[in-house]
Amino acid sequence: DTEVTQTPKHLVMGMTNKKSLKCEQHMGHRAMYWYKQKAKKPPELMFVYSYEKLSINESVPSRFSPECPNSSLLNLHLHALQPEDSALYLCASSQEWPGPYEQYFGPGTRLTVT
Amino acid sequence: GQNIDQPTEMTATEGAIVQINCTYQTSGFNGLFWYQQHAGEAPTFLSYNVLDGLEEKGRFSSFLSRSKGYSYLLLKELQMKDSASYLCAPSAGNMLTFGGGTRLMVKP
Predict the structure, then answer these.
(1) Which CA distances in Å does B64 have to B2, B80, B101?
(2) Residue pLDDT, tens place only, B49-107
(3) Which residues contact B45 (CB under 8 A, 6 or more apart)?
(4) Cβ separation of A45 and B97 shorter than 8 Å?
(5) Which pairing describes strands A44-50 and A31-37: parallel, antiparallel, or unpaired?
(6) Is B87–A90 a contact, with Cβ atoms under 8 angstroms apart?
(7) Cα distance from A16 to chain B (closest Cα, Å)?
(8) By CB atoms within 10 Å of each CB, which of A3, A71, A81, B106 scores lowest?
(9) Distance between CA atoms of A67 and A52, rounded to whole angstroms?
(10) How many other CB atoms are found less than 10 A from the CB of residue A101?
(11) Per the CB < 8 Å rule, is A97 touching B97?
(12) Which of A90, A98, A107 is opposite residue B94, by nearest beta carbon?
């Protein structure tokens, strides 16, 4: 199984809402990532988790709060977002981090903030 | 930081060969990935180069020159389904940074 799953596929939320994005992998990978991708732009790294510990936070605003409950699951909690946060949010996993390991991406959650 | 440069768009004909170039400037370089991304979908891994030279995988090949900070992705026998964005991603300091991507349009 080389699949990374993400839910929901689409999400529309108001600026005062609280929502969560979920990501799951069963490849035994010990590194998981969140990326943000705007239209016609490359993915931008937000967070890296290694062995369930937050290893990298790329200066992401606190309205995005990641959580790694176990080695297979990764959540992204959203609160008080801005319209400019509308984007495709991609989850990825790799065998380990650090290291130049191939990253497997999920299909993404397309988020619209109104 | 990193500086990654690849063409924004390319057009090629079905059955032809196309080469997508990527130049990069980075410190702590430890390899370069190429990913394919169809519109509205997730990126999928195509190739990884860590040593100089050509890596061939079916219709796709990738080349790396570390001293020149240069890589290319070669696509042979183009098919319509190859229409996608191709992302060059150098790995440096154990972090992957994606270039802006090259949007390839394959025409009949």
Answers:
(1) 17, 26, 17
(2) 999 999 999 999 999 999 999 999 999 999 999 999 999 999 987 688 899 999 999 99
(3) A102, A103, A104, B33, B35
(4) yes
(5) antiparallel
(6) no
(7) 27
(8) A3
(9) 9
(10) 20
(11) no
(12) A98
